[in-house]
Amino acid sequence: MVKKNACIFISGEGSNFKALYKYSKEKNFPVNIKLLVTSNIRAKGVIFAKKVGIPYLVYKNNKLSDEFKILNKIKQHKISIICLAGFMRILSSNFINVFGKKIINIHPSLLPKFKGLNTYQRILQNKEKKTGCTVHFVSKKLDGGKIILKKFFYIKGSDNKKTLKIKTQKLEHTSYSQAIIQVFNK
Ligand code: GRF
After folding, report:
1. Which of 2, 16, 107, 150 gives 20 to 30 Å between its CA and that of 123?
2. CB 116 within 8 A of CB 142
3. Residues 34-67: pLDDT tens digits?
């Protein structure tokens, strides 16, 4: 199997990045992670990238000149897919157009419900019965691109923001890789 090259975009913890890295080492997983982009130089995911020898770049903002530098590196690394994983910036439409290939994102809710930030708090306030995560294509609309897959679990009366985050992220760590397999098997 000839694997495609992936670039992961992060801003923080990078737990999804780490999970994807683990899957990427499997023979039949469709991608290898060749590059990391971070909007935060202090992100924990950067420490992991250094440890495993994945080159990284810092994304400062969505000014044309900055995005141009990132796009150039992405081209050099022959990247076929960008996976946003906790990336807290909004890519410009120019970036999306110029890259012209697959860009996917993982969101901690069952989209189209609870787009945007503070998802766990809003889910609890709304007394939802279930929640989960969604992997979707990135379009110019925030959290609005075509859905690739959703996974859910039931919320318990004892759940709070902390437990919802733990349960959601556990589900994300397997769902993101499943979504990538699905994207390349079509
Ligand atoms: C994830 O829960 C993801 O859904 C959201 O940001 C979080 C990132 O977590 N977009 P991590 O950095 O992968 O640990």
Report:
1. 16
2. yes
3. 999 999 999 999 999 999 999 999 998 778 888 9
Domain boundaries along the sequence of the chain: 4-184
Q: What is the pLDDT of residues 11-23, one digit of tens each?
A: 999 999 999 999 9
- CATH class name, domain 4-184: alpha beta
8 Å CB contact between 86 and 12 = yes
- pTM value is 0.96
Pocket flag, ligand 1, residue 119 (CB < 6 Å): no
Can 173 be counted among the known catalytic residues? no
Q: Is 89 in the pocket of ligand 1 (CB under 6 A)?
A: no
Which helix H or strand E contains 4, and what residues bound it?
strand 4-10
Mutate to test the pocket of ligand 1, among 8, 10, 11, 15 (most ligand atoms within 8 A of CB): 15
